Amino acid sequence: MTQSPPVAEDTGLYRADFEVFAAARTAADPSWLRRQREESMERFQERGFPTTAEEDWRFTNVAPIARTAFQRATGAGRGPVRGDAPANGPQIVFVDGRHSPELSTVPATGGLEVRSLAEVLSR
Length: 123
Known about the structure:
Elements: H1 12-25, H2 31-47, H3 63-66, E1 94-95, E2 98-99, H4 117-122
Antiparallel strand pairs: 1-2
């Protein structure tokens, strides 16, 4: 069995984008969340993308993702979205990685709430 070689993509590009993101969020987010994000970024820079040589990732080759230019979602690309909806039941829709309440169907009863982290933190 041949394993994929480790992917050694430049994590510095992600760090630069993270710094821009973090600077814009500093005042709005609680310290525990800022700390968690920073620790996660540091861990990513140390380890990089996982490879199939790692036990937990042995069946998932993320090399194509690692080679893809990353751009953080801005929400500007939100346009008409069409998909096959289930016949019955709740449906939670994400567009460009962001929850779309107007396209989702979540019943008001049953105790389930679907909100963005930004909305939760603003309360």
